[in-house]
Amino acid sequence: MKSFVLNVALAAMAMSCAGSTASFAAWEPVRPVEFIVPAGTGGGADQMARTIQGIVTKHNLMKQPLVVINKAGGAGGEGFLDVKTSSGNPHKIIITLSNLFTTPLATGIPFNWKDLTPVAMLALDEFVLWVNAEKPFNTVKDYVDAAKKAPSGSFKMGGTGSKQEDQIITVGIEKAIDAKFTYIPYKGGGEVAVQLVGNHVDSTVNNPIEAVAQWRGGKLRPLCVFDAQPMAYDEPIAEGKAWKDIPTCKSQGLAMEYLMLRGIFMSPKATKDQVEYYVELFKKVRATPEWQDFMKSGAFNTTFLAGADYAKWIEAEEKRHEGLMKDAGFLAPGN
Amino acid sequence: MEELANLFHGFAVALQPYNIMLMIIGITLGVIIGVLPGLGGANGVAILLPLTFSMPPTSAIIMLSCIYWGALFGGAITSILFNIPGEPWSVATTFDGYPMAQQGKPGEALTAAFTSSFVGALFAVIMITLVAPLVAGFALRFGPAEKFAVYFLAFCSFVGLSKEPPFKTIAAMMMGFALAAVGLDSITGQLRLTFGVTELLNGFDFLIAVIGLFGIGEILLTMEEGLAFRGGNASINLRVVLQTWRELPTYWMTSLRSCLIGCWMGVTPAGATPASFMSYGIAKRLARRGNNFGKGEIEGVIAPETAAHAAGTSALLPMLSLGVPGSPTAAVLLGGLLIWGLQPGPMLFVEQKEFVWGLIASMYLGNLAGLIVVLTCVPLFAAILRVPFGIIAPLILVLCAIGAYSVHNSTFDVMLMLVFGVLGYLLKKCNYPLAPLVLAIVLGDKAEEAFRQSLLGSQGSLGVFFSNGLVSTIMALGLVALFWSAIQEGYSRLRMSMA
């Protein structure tokens, strides 16, 4: 009994020592961490955030809980402004998509990514050109020929949101092949894919995860991927074809490349220790089998960047978005 | 036949003790979530989703769908007792449910609401079981034009079939449309009517408006009338349940009609809100005692509740078979499916038989378990009305404030709720109906979006709304509903002149 008490006391001392050295060496959250999603429930960013929350809980990666909060108002502007105004609060992180660039440019809300502290890029989301499987377009060439032959504006492209990534890609395609589409914005990617199955639009640029079920069901056909190289996943999905077998658009004569950021930022004025804590956390998340399954199911590009590399990537991407959106006439007055 | 065998296999999965335990926990959590206005089914499921990641997918979906059922049942409780609808589709339940509670019949109203929800949901589950593959394809025919036609029908049937003066109805509806237009214009991607105010980026959320208009507005009215709830003499024993049950079968026609409206609206997928409003409007016209609707008629509770739940349940069908969520809660469940590694879509029924039929079996059982849980609590809920107003009113105010805050975690919304409360009080004093205003806030931006998507596709031609049999039929029905009174009058005049 005595030895038990002693052991407990020793263990407690050891633990408190360990605790104090740990808090001395590095920063750790002392309150629950808010994980802001600048998009609605059920969408791509939301799914990723909730997967991360599940992984963190299951593998005990954090001592404090991670709480997902959706702030979707104004195409995500609500979420960005919330984090921007939480200067010096290290218990707030945000997952971003391309609306990090497009929302301030298109709506003119007072926000720029430089207002936040970049943490890490988790992955990049791919875009694929899809058509209805009943249509006679088997290659990009068939598709481009048909789009060029159709009367101007009668070829319909469906996409998620307005003046966001899907419409930017559409404008890019129009420029590349010199044709005019009518772009029809919908609320969510799943809805867009179903509109294509129902032949209410002629093509879409859905993310893999949004359209894979319809591909496997034989309803949709992928034509090409808007990446510099084919996707990495070689497991057969439908008709013996894998993600890897989808050619790049560029190789098929459609010169447009686009990848969407899935990255993490935190509140302004975060210290180096605080950023380092989150970078390490997400490294651990990425090492779990659940994360790898998630990457596979959505055929993500798994590039990881942090620190200066990440900031450099964002800067280049911001310039590119500014150019693309300026060309398309999507900039808000005064921007 | 194969479906039946699959279903029994599903029952075997759902009836494992572990799953039954999850079912009861889910229902209880759901009722609590449903009673708190603003928290709602979608948020509740989203918050609890990560808890289920360590469970097998079938158990997880059983628990989540039970939370969903519980929330649906729970939403009716506050609608009837306090005139505060927790979800868009419970708004129509307040029209007759709340007057019933005030007349000392909260037990009857609650029993009717719970039982009708059960009947509606059961009808939809049976439909899913029998005709799932056939019905799923129907949703594919719905493009933007067809969706707009359905919303158009909902608005028209409300204006045309309402007993209120049509111009007051239209005025209230226009106010709702104006409020719905605030926020992001989803077609051009630009901000609209926000005047640079960050809080308005989100627009006016339906829940904030409803909690204010109905909840706070009602408290203000009651205060003016002398600090008394008129439900004080509510009987609080289980006999009420049995008595109401004996009465319910006489309304089988209303139930059946509401089931059909609900299933159709759920599959198309227009959703539960237009279904409940449309069902209420049609019942008001066709029921024998339709003139008494709005004054505490039990049929006025049966019609919207049955249709809403038939629609809510059948909305799961397009989600599973096509991957299109029919409601916000379905959207969260869809996210859950993806995380568990299941791909909703045409192949789900083929590749994940155990999961799909386990879910369908749990819909039968969860619904039944939910009914039993809430019915045994009816006396308890009804007893709440015996608490003196001086105590219950501050509690409701706090509940409303928590609800409004939890929608977007914003204190601005609580202020907004109070403003809506005053607005609701004034409108009621001037005899403007609140329901069309709420309907327009809920469906206004969706209708606008579908309308503009259709016109984009047709390059500006209105002919798109009469371009095929389906859309023309729905639009024609809408026009008939809109001018129903005029048509009826013309018909009776014609008969007079013939005679």
From TrEMBL, chain A:
Annotated family: Belongs to the UPF0065 (bug) family.
UniProt keyword annotations, A-Z: Signal
Organism of this sequence: Bradyrhizobium shewense
Signal peptide: 1-25
Annotated PROSITE patterns: PROKAR_LIPOPROTEIN
Pfam families associated with the record: TctC
Keyword Ribonucleoprotein among UniProt keywords: no
Entry annotated with the keyword Transport: no
Organism classification: Bacteria, Pseudomonadati, Pseudomonadota, Alphaproteobacteria, Hyphomicrobiales
Protein name: Putative tricarboxylic transport membrane protein
Recorded coiled-coil stretches: none
UniProtKB/TrEMBL annotation, chain B:
Segments passing through the bilayer: 20-49, 61-82, 109-136, 148-163, 169-188, 200-221, 322-343, 355-381, 387-407, 414-443, 463-487
Domain DUF112, residue spans: 20-439
Domain of life of the native organism: Bacteria
Keywords for this protein: Membrane, Transmembrane, Transmembrane helix
Protein name: Tripartite tricarboxylate transporter TctA family protein
